[in-house]
Structures are given as C-alpha cells and as structure tokens.
Amino acid sequence: xxxxxxxxxxxxxxxxxxxFFLLILLQIPLFRIPCRLGICKSPxxxxxxxxxxxxxxxxxxxxxxxxxxAVGKAVYKGKPLPSYSKVLNFYRFTKGSAKTExxxxxxxxxxxxxxxxxxxxxxxxxxxxxxxxxxxxxxxxKEAILGQxxxxxxxxxxxxPTMSIALRYPKQELDEACSNVNKQ
Length: 184
Description:
It comes from Heracleum sosnowskyi. The chain is mainly alpha-helical. The protein has seven helices and three strands, in the order αββαααααβα.
C-alpha cells in the first residue's frame, strides 16, 4: 500500500517539475520588475539580463535559453517567428545596453534559484524552485509595500496572477518530500 502511494506521489512530483520547467522555459509572465536591461517578466529574463550584461555566459547559451520563450510569444501574439540570430534584440538584451545597479536582490537570487530548480527538477528532486519562487515573491512584495529609495518608477514592480501557478508546482514536490520524511 505504501509503495503505491509513494509511486503516485513521485508521479505527481515529476509532472509538477515538468510543468514548472515549461513555465520557466516558455517565460510565462509571473511578475514585472525593472532589471538591468529593461523590464523583465519572468525568472529566465532576469537571469539572462544579468548574465548578458555581466558577460559571464556566452551569448549563444543565452540565445538557446531565450528562444523558446520568443517563439511562444510570437505564436501567442500571431506574429512571425523571430530569427534565432536576433533573439537578443527581440528582448532588447544587447551588449551596448546601459548597466545599472540592481535594486531587487531578492528577485535576482530567487530567479537564479527558480531557473536552476526548473532544470534540475527534470533530473531529480530538488528544492531550489520553491526557494526561488518564495524569494521572488518576497522581493516583489517588499518593493510594493516599502519601495526602494532612488528608484524613479516604483509602480513598475507588479506580480501577475500566474505566480500562484508557479508557487503551486514546486510546493507539490515539497509536500511529497515532507510526507516521505513523516512516513519514515
């Protein structure tokens, strides 16, 4: 009996990990916040804008990660598919963009955790995704309540209702892990 419920929980966890991976890879808007290279609406965009601006990762790697979201946006809006070579221009992520200070550290760290958790969740059970989403929620909520000094456009920080979907799927993995610990 326990093995059947364990298999069922593992199956739900795998499906939840896959849905979260698609949510991150297709760059479904979860929040809106100013980032280094404009306005970012998903954890992958925040991570990409930071890595492109700092030149830590080759642009070819960032193009591979950003292209599925660009295709999804084009299909959703009924526009022609963007060229792979111009995907960074599609997001306005170019080398010549001005570098600014990053005021939303929780959102940046949470985005790194969410993206890493989405990719690692495909190969195993990891808890980075829930930590990342909670950090993003904390950063956006803190900005909405307290605001940051020195930021001109405070009303640009916003959380979309899809954030509840992003929070639900990593929570299912966490619930499964807690139930396995309680059974032992």
